[in-house]
Amino acid sequence: ALTPTPSVSRSSFLAPRTAPAPLPSAIPRAAPRFAPAPAPRMDLAGAGIYSPAVPRSDIRVVVFGSTGYIGRYVTKELIAQGYAVVAVAREKKAEKAARDFAGARRIAVAEVTDVESVRAVFKADDAEDGTSPFAATVTVSCMASRGGGLKDSNLVDYQATLNALEANIGPSPASASKTSHFVLLSAVCVQKPLLEFQRAKLKFEEALQAVPSSASDKDFSYSIVRPTAFFKSLAGQIARMQTGASYIMFGDGELSKCNPISERDLARFMAACIKEEQYRNKVLPVGGPGEPVTPKEQARMIFEKIGKPEKLQSVPIGLMDVVIGAIDAVGKVVPLDSVKDAAEFGRIGKYYATEDMIGPSYGEDTLEAFFEDVAKNGLEGQELGEAAIF
User: Fold this and answer.
1) Cα separation, 55 vs 137, whole angstroms
2) What whole-number distance in Å separates Cα of residue 185 and Cα of residue 261?
C-alpha cells in the first residue's frame, strides 16, 4: 500500500546498523545573560517525553528548516522513528516537502522571520477549546543562514530561530501544545567565534539556555547540538580529482583537522536528544567515529579510492589575508552590503581552512567508506550546495 501524502497547511550508502554508543561527554551549560518569557512545565526524569509509556506517535515534533541540507535528514529520521512530525517549509518548498516527507503529520507553510506566522504553526493542531491532541510538543530547529552573510546570519541564525522558540512558550499556549523540549542544530565552530554567523548562533544559544534558568520550577529543557564537519562538505574536490587534477590544500595540509560526522548519524543523534535524558539541558559537540584527519590525509584517502596518483597543490594562507584585506579596502570606499558580505565569506573560508573541527565520536558511518562510495557512485543528487567547502 502506498503511504498517503501529508496535507499542506498554511500555518545511503551503508546498510542499517545497530544503535550507536552514547556520546561520551558534554559541555556544561554557560551562564545566561538574559531571560525570555517563562516556559512550560518540564517533564520530570522518566516522565512525559522521557517515559517509555508515552508512544512517539503522541509526541508532536515541529521541525524548522526541514527542507535544508541537514533538516531533510533529521525530518526523515524523526518520521521513521514514528513521531508526529510537522515539517515547516516556505511556500515555494511546500509541494516538494509534501513529496519528500510523505509520512509526516502535515506540512506547515510559514515565514520564519514573522513570529505570528510561526505561532500559527503550533496553533493549527489545537482544538477549538485550545486543547491539544498530543501528549507533548518538541521543537527542532535546523535553520541556518545560507551563506553566512552579515545580515542573513542575524536574521536567520538568531532572530528566526528565536521566533521558533518564543512563539510557543510562556503562559499563552495550552499545556500540551507548549514546547517542552527544544533541540537546536548549532555548530562546533561557535566555540571560537570570529565570524558573524557564529556570534548570531551563540546569541541564540544564550537565549535558549536562559529559559529553564528563568523559571522557578526549571520548567523547560533543551539540547544544543554542535556537529563538527559533514562528510559531503569534504567531497567538493573529488569530481575534479577524478579527471587528474590536484587536491588543493592550504599551507602544509596539516591545518583544520576534523572528525566529520555523516548526515545520517547526525540525524540519529538529534532524534536521540528528544527521548534520552542524558542529553537534556546540555551543549553537545559531536563528531563522527575515528581519529581526526588532516586535509592531507583526506587527500591521500581520496586518491587511493579513485585510483589516481597523489597530486597536491598548496595555497599559502597569507594569500587569503591579501584577498580579504583588498575586499575590506573596497568596502570602505564602496560601503555596499554585497562587498561587506564578500569580505565575510573570505573570512569564513580562511576559518575553515585553518581551524580544527573536532568533537566526541558518535555513530558508525566512516569517512573512508563515504569516499569509497563517492568514488564509485559520484555525488549526483546529493545537493552539496553551500555545504561544500570548495
Assistant:
1) 13
2) 13
390 residues of the chain, pLDDT tens digit each: 444 445 454 444 334 444 444 544 444 444 444 344 443 445 666 666 777 888 899 999 999 999 999 999 999 999 999 999 999 999 999 999 999 999 999 999 999 999 999 999 999 988 877 778 888 899 999 999 988 889 999 999 999 999 999 988 865 555 556 888 999 999 999 999 999 999 999 999 999 998 876 653 356 889 999 999 999 889 989 999 999 999 999 999 999 999 999 999 999 999 999 999 899 999 999 999 999 999 999 999 999 999 999 999 999 999 989 999 999 899 888 888 899 999 999 999 999 999 999 999 999 999 999 999 999 888 765 554 444 443
Which amino acid is residue 17, in one-letter code? Answer: R
Report CA 389 to chain centroid distance, whole Å.
Answer: 16
* Closest to 190 measured CA to CA, from 168, 172, 205: 205
- Contact yes or no for 29/103 (Cβ under 8 A): no
Contact 260, 8 (CB under 8 A): no
